[in-house]
Amino acid sequence: MGYLTTFVVFSLLAILTFAYADEHTTDIEIRNNCPYTVWAAAADIGGGRRLDQGQTWTIREPPHAIGRIWGRTDCTFDSSGKGSCQTGDCDGVLNCTGWGKKPNTLIRFALDNRNDLDLFYISLEDGFNIPISFTPTVVTSGGKCHAISCTANINSECPDDLKVTGGCNNPCDVYKTPDGRCNTYSTEKYFKFFKEKCPEAHSSPDEDSSEFMFDCPSGKTNYKIAFCPLGNAHQNFPLKMTATTHEVAK
C-alpha cells in the first residue's frame, strides 16, 4: 500500500466510523531517553515540547484522532516559539500544526476505527533521525497489540547517497522518475537496508500494510513513545548531538 493510499484509508476510517466508537480520550506519553535534547512534535491537534533527557510530555488525544508524532533535533526557539530545527522542523515554530521537514522518524496512528481498534505503526516514509518505540500500556494476549520499535543506528550506517546532516533520507526522496514518482529500481537495495535495520517499520511504498500496521482494542489502553528507547547503553547508540541553549519557549 502506497503512502497516499495509507493516509486516505486512515482518514476514511475516522470519518466513516465516528458514530460507532465510544467517546473516550487516549493518553500518549512521550519520553526522551536520548543523551541530548529532543523537541517532540505532534500533528493532529497540534503541539510541541522541548524534552531534555528523562523528561516526558503527555498528549491527550480525542476520540477518532488521526495523527503523527516525531522528534526534532538541534533546535533553537525564541520567547515567542519561533525558530528552526536541523531535522523535523515544522514551519519554524515550536508548536507544530503541520508536518515535519524530512528526514524524521514517525509514529502514525488512527484511534477508534470501525472495528473498535487503534491502528499504529512506525514509519520511515519521511526518513530517519531518532530511534523510537511505541508501547501500549495494556498488552492483550495474541493479535498485534504489543510494543514496536526502530532502535538501529541508522544515522551512522546510512548509505552516502541518503545521508544528510542529522538524519538519513528515505530512498524515494532521493531517487525519482522524471514524473516525480519513486524510482523503485534504484531504491531496492536501500529499502533492503532500512528493512534489515528496522523490520517493524514501514519504509517502502510497495509494502503491504499488513506487514507494518499494529492494533489494540480502542479504549482499553494508553500508549508510550520513547525517543532512544534503549538509552545510551546500546552499543549502536547514535553519536551525541549538542543541544542549543538559547531557546526559552518550552
TrEMBL record:
Xref: PROSITE patterns: THAUMATIN_1 (PS00316), THAUMATIN_2 (PS51367)
SUPFAM superfamilies in the cross-refs: Osmotin, thaumatin-like protein
CDD domains assigned: TLP-P
Cysteines joined through disulfide linkages: C34-C228, C75-C85, C90-C96, C145-C216, C150-C198, C158-C168
Short name of any one Pfam family annotated for the protein: Thaumatin
Signal peptide from the UniProt entry: 1-21
Keyword vocabulary terms for this entry: Disulfide bond, Signal
GO-annotated biological processes: defense response
Family: Belongs to the thaumatin family.
InterPro entries recorded: Osmotin/thaumatin-like_sf, Thaumatin, Thaumatin_CS
Protein name, per record: Osmotin-like protein OSML81
Provenance organism: Nicotiana tabacum
